[in-house]
Write a structure and sequence with these properties.
Blueprint: E1 10-13, H1 25-39, E2 44-46, H2 47-50, H3 56-66, E3 69-74, H4 77-80, H5 83-98, E4 105-110, E5 126-129, H6 133-144, H7 149-168
Parallel strand pairs: 1-2, 1-3, 3-4, 4-5
Helix pairs in contact: 3-5
């Protein structure tokens, strides 16, 4: 069988389930962010949607390796430092520090956590409130040097209108 390798722009790291098995607020925020980024044209790794059960660890590490930006979503220090989440962001951070990922960026999307509460490795990165996901999306596109679909469509419509007017003159 063949394994499809996705080229991810963004890896979203978040705590999926609470101790009681319910889905976390982190997950809800991450899912909304995932939708916004995908709708604007990015390839985004979101574990809930992109993991097959077979080789999920390999998939996580491949996605971490490919992504240029890791977005860490956190609603508590405990979630940010939980085993899986910390493994993801610290692996990404390590790749940046070692020079394997010289164009790598981390940004945090926080709710109920201040940047001062973040682990020291994360506190100097760009941070956004969960109530301002559009700014996080804009920052992601600027950092990647890409244009959002909605902006490209607006530009194309303006360009067609200019050509139409020029043809009438």
């Amino acid at each position: 069988y063949e394994v499809t390798i996705m080229a991810y722009d963004v890896f979203i790291s978040f705590k999926n389930t609470a101790p009681d098995g319910s889905l976390t607020v982190d997950r809800a925020i991450a899912e909304l962010l995932h939708t916004k980024l995908k709708d604007e044209g990015l390839e985004v790794f979101f574990s809930e949607k992109d993991l097959s059960s077979a080789a999920f660890m390999d998939q996580i590490y491949n996605a971490l390796e490919e992504a240029k930006i890791l977005i860490l979503v956190g609603t508590s220090v405990e979630h940010i430092n939980s085993e899986w989440v910390k493994s993801e962001w610290s692996t990404f951070f390590g790749s940046m520090k070692s020079g394997r990922k010289p164009d790598g960026h981390i940004l945090t999307v926080l709710h109920g956590v201040s940047t001062r509460e973040l682990p020291i490795q994360l506190e100097h990165f760009e941070s956004f409130g969960a109530n301002d996901l559009d700014s996080a999306v804009d920052f992601t596109f600027r950092t990647l040097g890409k244009v959002k679909r909605s902006e490209a469509a607006a530009w194309l419509a303006e360009e067609q209108e200019r050509k139409r007017k020029a043809a009438e003159e």
